[in-house]
Amino acid sequence: MKNSTLWCSLYSTELKYNLRLTKSLDANRVPLILSGLSFFAFILIFFNLSLDLSYFKLLAIAIISASAIYLLCLQFDLTGRQFSDKAILLSSAGVLSLASVRHYKLLPSSQVMPFVCRLDLTAVNDIAIAANCVSAEPVKSERVIKFIFKDSLSEQNFRRLCRIISSTQRGA
Question: How far apart, in whole angstroms, are the C-alpha atoms of residue 97 and residue 158?
Fold first, then answer.
C-alpha cells in the first residue's frame, strides 16, 4: 500500500552538487554550425539528384536554405534559454535550486547530447524543499526548458549533470 505523505528528513544524506556556470561560447556557434551543415547537405543532395541545374542556381538554392536555417536557429534563441544564475545547486534526486529562491525538478523528458544538456524542468513546492523531502511534488503551473552547454561547466560537473539526467530518465 502506497503511503500518501512524503518522506522527509531533517538530516538528509542526499548528494548535492554546486555547479558553477560560465558564459558559453558554443551557444553562439550553434546557428552557424547548423547552417553550414545544411549548406553542404543541400549541395550534396542536389548533386546526387542529378538535376539539370547550373552551378549558380545550385549555389543560390543552398545559400537560401542555409540562411533560412540560420534564421530559424536565431529565432529559437539558445542564448536566452540558458541559466542567468551563475551558481546552481543540483541534488542527486534531480532537484535544482537557483539562488535558494526558485526550485525546479528535472523531468524524464530532459535530454543529454554531446555538447549540450536540454533540461526540461518543472517548478517544485518550496515547502517540500525546505523540509528536505526525498520526493518533492511538482507544481503543475510552471514548466521551463533550459540549456546547459558543455563549455559552461567543468568536465566533472558536466558528467555529473549527465548522470543525474540519465538517472531521472530511468526513474531511479
Answer: 17
